[in-house]
# Entry
Amino acid sequence: MKRSRSVKLLTMASASLALTACQEDFDTEGELYRTVSECFSSEHVPDGDCAPLIDEGKRIHETTAPRYNSRPLCEEQGTDCSYEKSGNQVYYSPVPMGYLVTGAIAGGVVSDFVRPVYRDRTRRGYYYSTGGGYVGYLGGGRYGTTKKNIRAYNPKVQRAAPKIQTRTTVASRGGFGSRSGFSFGS
# Structure
């Protein structure tokens, strides 16, 4: 009887350790807003900051969102897509699920606290954000990411527009985003 109890405890401890090892180590929490009115209805962001945050999230999306040469290719990444035109280029971009607002925004730079968030077809329960990082749902309307992911995008640095991706470039990367693999501890 005691042996079976210790085996069960060992099995439960191993399973919990394995599940923990597969999760991202989130050190930053925030909320996801789709619209300014959703932001107004929350108690976490002052009303005067809602419109600038959502506008900045849209600007970041326009300048950094992945671009695909066809709607089917964009939709294969697990998200709704919109037709976009910039100069003489035509492409499809994922539609953001919303804009992740993190941290205390008092006295900060708005762009340091907001990121567009997209669905990720490869990781159930996780979403992809500008800067190459994942965002996970923590429950209770809260989302988690890492400070490293938030800092990966510097709005003060002028960047070239993302390249329009073809089926070949998407296949070589393994899907949506800039990471083609997963490793523990990074």
About this structure: The two ends are 42 Å apart (CA to CA). The longest helix spans residues 2-22. Residues 132 and 177 are 6 Å apart (CA to CA). The longest strand covers residues 133-139.
